[in-house]
């Protein structure tokens, strides 16, 4: 099985990235997990031409080719980070790589409930 591990933040230092790196290593014998970054995507601006940035089409192709997606999200103000919703906005603008795609939602936080509300938020978005 091949999975895409979506780092749900644009932060350089992130426990969520570390979590995905750990999962990749921990389950190396059972699945291939490729980490993808959303930090270099431009801010979604609803381009009239519907022309997508090349990073977005590359990301969509990776998702389409994978057996499933794992998204690890931090929690910012009880929601997903702006960088994550930005990526999801691009990935639903005339393209639908998540249709019928199994998605596992996870997250890491320093606090007891941190990431849980963002995960519920992400479930609703998806
Ligand atoms: C702007 C901002 C808002 C945050 N809001 C919340 C919050 O509402 N609830 C919460 O539990 N943690 C909150 N946190 C803490 C982060 O969610 C938590 O540290 C995060 O899951 C860590 O992920 P990361 O290391 O991948 O960035 C906030 C952090 C920042 C920077």
Provide a descriptive summary of the structure in words.
The protein has 126 residues and is an alpha/beta fold. It has one domain: Rossmann fold, CATH 3.40.50.360. Helices cover 34% and strands 16% of the residues. It has four helices and four strands, in the order βαβαβαβα. Strands 2-1-3-4 form a four-stranded parallel sheet, sandwiched between helices. The longest helix is centred in the first third of the chain and has 12 residues. It is globular. The two termini are 22 Å apart. The structure holds flavin mononucleotide. Flavin mononucleotide (FMN) binds next to helix 1.
List keywords for this structure.
single chain; 126 residues; alpha/beta; Rossmann fold; 4-stranded parallel beta sheet; 16% strand; binds flavin mononucleotide
The ordered string of helix (H) and strand (E) elements is EHEHEHEH
Uncertain spans, ≥5 residues at pLDDT below 50? none
Associated small molecules? flavin mononucleotide
Structural class, judged by helices and strands? alpha/beta
CATH class: Alpha Beta
Q: CATH homologous superfamily? A: Flavodoxin domain
Describe the biggest sheet?
4 strands, parallel
| CATH architecture annotation name | 3-Layer(aba) Sandwich
